[in-house]
Design a protein that fits this description.
A 4-stranded mixed beta sheet has the order 1-4-3-2, with helices on one face. The chain has a 3-stranded mixed beta sheet with strand order 5-7-6, with no helix packed on it. The chain has one domain (7-116): 2,3-Dihydroxybiphenyl 1,2-Dioxygenase, domain 1 (Roll). The protein is built from 2 helices and 7 strands. The mean pLDDT is 96. The protein is globular. The longest helix is centred in the middle third of the chain and has 14 residues, at 67-80. With 122 residues, it is α/β, with parallel strands linked by helices.
Length: 122
C-alpha cells in the first residue's frame, strides 16, 4: 500500500471560523463536524481537522491549485481585502511569486497559508 496523508489536526483560536474561512476561500465543501473537530476535506481526500486551542505556534499549510482556481482564490483574497505576500517571511507584501503563481496569507488563527500552481522543484 502506498503511504498517503489522511488527515492533520490544525490548532485554532476558533475552529469553526478557521474551517469556514479556508473552505470558502479555497471553494471547498462546507466543513463538517467529526467528534469535537471541524473538518475541511481537500480534493485529494486529505482532511484538515480544526481544533480549538488556547496556545499554539502558527504553522504553514500549502495548497496546490490549478491556474483557473488560482484566479478565483486570488479574486476572493482581494475582495476581502486580505493581506498577501510572495514569500513565507512576509517581506514582499501584495506580490504574487513567480514560481508558477503563488502567494501566502494568514488564516484567522495566524497560520501561514500558501496557494501555488506548481510544486517546488519542478
Amino acid at each position: 500500500m502506498a503511504v498517503e496523508l489522511n488527515h492533520t489536526i490544525i490548532p485554532s483560536r476558533d475552529k469553526k471560523a478557521s474551517a469556514e474561512f479556508l473552505a470558502d476561500l479555497l471553494s471547498l465543501a462546507p466543513p463538517k463536524t467529526f467528534g469535537h473537530f471541524v473538518c475541511v476535506e481537500t480534493a485529494n481526500g486529505v482532511s484538515l481537522d480544526f481544533d480549538n486551542r488556547t496556545s499554539f505556534e502558527p504553522g504553514h499549510y500549502a495548497f496546490l491549485i490549478s491556474e483557473e482556481e488560482f484566479d478565483s482564490v486570488f479574486a476572493r483574497v482581494q475582495e476581502r481585502g486580505l493581506r498577501y505576500w510572495a514569500d513565507p517571511g512576509h517581506s514582499q507584501e501584495s506580490v504574487v511569486n513567480g514560481h508558477g503563481r503563488g502567494f501566502y496569507f494568514e488564516d484567522p488563527s495566524g497560520h501561514n497559508m500558501e496557494v501555488l500552481t506548481r510544486p517546488y522543484g519542478t
